[in-house]
Design brief:
- This protein is an alpha/beta fold.
- The protein has 3 domains: about 15-75, Orthogonal Bundle (Arc Repressor Mutant, subunit A); about 85-180 and about 300-325, 3-Layer(aba) Sandwich (Rossmann fold); about 185-300, Rossmann fold, CATH 3.40.50.2300.
- It is built from 12 helices and 14 strands.
- The strands form 3 sheets. It has a 6-stranded parallel beta sheet with strand order 4-3-5-6-7-13, with helices on both faces. The chain has a 6-stranded mixed beta sheet with strand order 9-8-10-11-12-14, with helices on both faces.
- The radius of gyration is 26 Å and the shape is elongated.
- It holds the Pfam family Peripla_BP_3.
- GO terms for molecular function: DNA binding; DNA-binding transcription factor activity.
Length: about 325
């Protein structure tokens, strides 16, 4: 059969010989992008193979992006880049400065025979669902960031269990998958405890918690710390109509609210770190220099990316908590 060779005398699995045959035909220039390859039924009949054996070969070729299928027509060459060993699907919630740090670190920790396609669901459940469905069978690994979405196990069931990795949040219904995550409640409580001497000089701690995409664990850790240490606190949904006062320290997840708070402090001649405290989340280079330096509670996103890459490379089944810390600067 043209382009497919099977030798029963070789100690190489038949499905692997099919894959190698396609690779060889591409390398020799016999198969080009858009060319049709022999059908599953043709290969089964020619070499007396089971459909399962041929499907294993076809599925691996699809996962590496070498072939794709057109319903009712057959399988066609999609790429001639046979040097790619891994093809990874990455689904983030959104792109921002710290997610870019994570992604860049992830890419840098992979080898040059790995390609990565990144997509964003922007907290839209239908987009999340559609992107996962469209990716099924086309990649060797899947990195999924469910973010605020719960009960997504059925959606992920279209993907191979041993090729899925969860990122950023630990979800009870996805406990069978490996994960690199942030423990928001524990990290918040731990960071506040580490900065207790700085925080107790303020009359009140105020957390801006708008809900939505923000992790509830942060608010729970904040309330737990304040209650246990008998510190006066307040949780607000927004800064709208808020009058800031000397002796308050604000915890702001939104960078927009961070800028607004810095501006409000300047307008009232309140000195950051003395009259008013500010703590932001998710450290970036910009926060090192804004207003003389903004104190943050943040995980190490570069380390998170490296750990994720190692997990994918090792096919590790681990569940790894990526810890956060208080990074103290001028604003506290």
């Amino acid at each position: 059969m043209k382009n497919i060779q099977i030798d029963d005398s070789l100690g190489i699995p038949k499905y692997r010989q099919i894959i190698n045959s396609v690779y060889q035909a591409i390398s020799n220039g016999e198969l080009k992008v858009g060319d049709k390859i022999p059908s599953l039924n043709q290969i089964c009949a020619e070499f007396d193979l089971s459909r399962d054996t041929v499907m294993v070969a076809f599925n691996e070729l699809k996962a590496k992006g070498i072939i794709h299928s057109i319903p009712g027509k057959g399988y066609y060459i999609n790429s001639v880049d046979v040097n790619v060993n891994e093809r990874i699907f990455v689904l983030f919630d959104e792109l921002n400065a710290f997610k870019e740090d994570l992604y860049t670190s992830f890419l840098n920790a992979l080898d040059d025979k790995t390609t990565v396609d990144i997509y964003f669901h922007h907290f839209n459940f239908q987009v999340f669902k559609d992107l996962i469905a469209a990716s099924a069978g086309k990649y060797t690994s899947y990195v999924i960031m469910p973010a605020t979405f719960d009960y997504t196990a059925d959606i992920l069931s279209v993907l191979p269990d041993d090729k899925v990795y969860i990122l950023d949040r630990l979800k009870p219904d996805l406990e069978k998958y490996p994960v690199v995550y942030q423990d928001f409640e524990k990290d918040m409580y731990g960071a506040l405890t580490a900065g207790k001497d700085l925080l107790t000089k303020y009359a009140k701690l105020v957390m801006i918690f708008p809900g939505g995409k923000e992790p509830e664990g942060r608010m729970i850790g904040f309330q737990k710390f304040c209650n246990e240490n008998k510190i006066q606190f307040e949780v607000l949904r927004s800064l709208l109509n808020r009058t800031i006062r000397k002796g308050e320290a604000y915890f702001v997840p939104s960078d927009r609210n961070l800028v607004r708070l810095v501006k409000m402090a300047a307008e009232q001649n309140l000195l950051l770190g003395e009259d008013l405290g500010i703590v932001s989340f998710n450290d970036t280079m910009l926060k090192e220099v804004v207003a003389g330096g903004i104190t943050t509670i943040s995980t190490d996103f570069a380390e998170m990316g490296r750990r994720l890459a190692q997990m994918v490379k090792d096919r590790s089944p681990e569940k790894i908590a990526n810890p956060a810390a208080l990074i103290q600067r001028n604003s506290l």
